[in-house]
């Protein structure tokens, strides 16, 4: 075995052997905890060959397990993925925790006691019969020390839950462990109900003597003892007869206390486990109850209450999560991976994403917001200023014109609302939900932030938007408004400056003349641009006049190279089957 101070994982071969060793130990522990009380209480052949062989075999295996524990790595408390394999650290930890309890429960104290007190003389059974009986009874009590192996059972079950990932079903495992522990305590209590009168020699007022069970078969004795113990523990009676002696009274009280404790533990754990079994559904029911109380407080109409209830049912599907809080606690990379996985169906269904750069898709998806619309809801209203665009994950929407006519319909994988984000204009059509629609929205700020990083995708969306405008009878040049204005303005300013430079070279003018000429020329040149901008905004400005600042005389024309570069050719239009949208 490796003895390095710390490694990340167990050795695979050793871990495989340890798994079967733990399994055998678990089965042997269960057998001991069930068989030992029965054998001690209901059988008198403590020195029979089969009983000695069983005890010696069990004690030997448990002593070997102590040695194995000295060679078994322990997991660090602050990092469960690291296992300490240093023998000194393992021994120090084991000696400080469970070593002495395991050692006491593994030593055959009853046999050691009998060895030191045996007498081989023939007169032993005649002269010392009473003393021998007391020795045997004391040996029985010493054999009860083996029941301390219960601590090993608890530890092994906990280790299996941690190491072998049984905690994935921890709710059911905890309920199962609790029920098994209650049954085991009831089994022990039944054996104790018979053991104490047996050690006393079955006095006449004991429940065993009253029921005449001294010479009965051991299974009948155990059945009546278990019935008596369970009656006490469940507080439903005292068995066939109430306690007649002081010993029976104390045993009855002990059984009642243990039963009440187990019942309280079971009730508390069961309630806690049931509540934690589906916490998201419980939170959804609490949210719906709160909404119902709010609707009743505000006295909302019945139809509106029905729509709100149906909205919650469709939106949350019976489970409520604070997804923003959950994702906000993750690392940036992990949060991005989760969002990409959640939106994988959307990315697969949108043709625009299928042909786009993966980095662009990831940047867009991480900024999307999930929204739900009911049938008949107006998602976009014509004439309003757009602040979002939408991607359809599931559902059907209609594009409605001003005259109420449905121009077209969009379904899964389509997107709409990008035109006004590209043009800064008002919505050119309304969008109405035909069915329940699951949409993802992208705000204008996130839209511009992403497209500024990917200018090629901006030109692609502009071409698609121009095509859609053309289909619904709108001017497709609205999309190229920004680019055309920038190009025209740059050409105009360049022409004015060139004229000023040429005139200054041939005619000697004063600085005031140059300023007045610059003001007049620039004002005349910018007047068509502002008029065009006003027409695009739907505002008429009669008698437009511009007062521009005086321009200094340039030394060369190279200062306006950036303005000339704006006159580049616009991008080619891209065909799209996504449909028509405002």
Automatic annotation (TrEMBL):
Q: Which GO terms describe its biological process?
A: regulation of membrane depolarization; sodium ion transmembrane transport
- TM spans, by residue? 20-43, 175-196
Keyword check for Membrane: yes
Entry's CDD domains?
CAP_ED (cd00038)
Would the keyword Membrane be found if you checked this record's keyword annotation? yes
Domain of life where this protein originates: Eukaryota
Q: Which Pfam families match?
A: cNMP_binding, Ion_trans
What is the protein name stated in its UniProt record? Cyclic nucleotide-binding domain-containing protein
Source species: Arctia plantaginis
């Amino acid at each position: 075995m490796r003895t390095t101070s710390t490694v990340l994982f167990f050795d695979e071969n050793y871990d495989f052997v340890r798994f079967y060793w733990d399994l055998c130990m678990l089965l042997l522990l269960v057998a001991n905890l069930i068989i030992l009380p029965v054998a001690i209480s209901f059988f008198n052949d403590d020195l029979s060959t089969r009983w000695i062989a069983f005890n010696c075999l069990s004690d030997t295996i448990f002593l070997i397990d102590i040695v194995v524990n000295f060679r078994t790595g322990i997991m660090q408390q602050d990092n469960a993925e690291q296992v300490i394999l240093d023998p000194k650290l393992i021994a120090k930890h084991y000696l400080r925790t469970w070593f002495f309890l395991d050692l006491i429960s593994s030593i055959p104290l009853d046999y050691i006691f009998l060895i030191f007190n045996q007498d081989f003389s023939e007169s032993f059974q005649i002269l010392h019969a009473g003393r021998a009986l007391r020795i045997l009874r004391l040996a029985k009590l010493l054999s009860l020390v083996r029941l301390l192996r219960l601590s090993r059972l608890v530890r092994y079950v906990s280790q299996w839950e941690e190491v072998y990932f049984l905690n994935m079903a921890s709710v059911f495992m905890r309920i199962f462990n609790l029920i098994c522990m209650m049954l085991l305590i009831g089994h022990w209590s039944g054996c104790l109900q018979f053991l104490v009168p047996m050690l006393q020699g079955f006095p006449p007022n004991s429940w065993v003597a009253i029921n005449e069970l001294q010479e009965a078969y051991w299974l009948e004795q155990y059945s009546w003892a278990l019935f008596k113990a369970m009656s006490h523990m469940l507080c439903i009676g005292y068995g066939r007869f109430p306690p007649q002696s002081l010993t029976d009274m104390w045993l009855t009280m002990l059984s009642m206390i243990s039963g009440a404790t187990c019942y309280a533990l079971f009730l508390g754990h069961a309630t806690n486990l049931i509540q934690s079994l589906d916490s998201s559904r419980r939170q959804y029911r609490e949210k719906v109850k709160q909404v119902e109380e709010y609707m009743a407080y505000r006295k909302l109409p019945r139809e509106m209450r029905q729509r709100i209830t149906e909205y919650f049912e469709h939106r949350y599907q019976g489970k409520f999560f604070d997804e923003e809080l959950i994702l906000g606690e993750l690392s940036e990379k992990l949060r991005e991976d989760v969002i990409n996985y959640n939106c994988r169906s959307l990315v697969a269904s949108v043709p625009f994403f299928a042909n786009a750069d993966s980095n662009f898709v990831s940047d867009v998806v991480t900024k999307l917001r999930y929204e739900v619309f009911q049938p008949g809801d107006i998602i976009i209203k014509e004439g309003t200023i757009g602040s979002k665009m939408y991607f359809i994950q599931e559902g059907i929407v209609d594009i409605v014109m001003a005259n109420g006519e449905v121009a077209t319909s969009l379904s899964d994988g389509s997107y709409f609302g990008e035109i006004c984000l590209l043009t800064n204009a008002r919505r050119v059509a309304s969008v109405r939900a035909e069915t329940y629609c699951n949409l993802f929205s992208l705000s204008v700020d996130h839209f511009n932030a992403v497209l500024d990083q990917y200018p090629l995708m901006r030109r692609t969306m502009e071409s698609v938007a121009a095509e859609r405008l053309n289909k619904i009878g709108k001017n497709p040049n609205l999309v190229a408004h920004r680019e055309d204005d920038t190009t025209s303005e740059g050409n105009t300013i360049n022409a004015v400056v060139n004229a000023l430079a040429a005139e200054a070279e041939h005619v000697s003018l004063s600085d005031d003349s140059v300023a007045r000429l610059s003001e007049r020329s620039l004002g005349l040149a910018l007047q068509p641009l502002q008029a065009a901008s006003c027409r695009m905004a739907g505002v008429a400005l009669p008698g437009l006049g511009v007062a521009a600042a005086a321009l200094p005389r340039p030394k060369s024309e190279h200062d306006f190279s950036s303005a000339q570069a704006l006159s580049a050719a616009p991008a080619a239009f891209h065909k799209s089957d996504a449909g028509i949208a405002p």
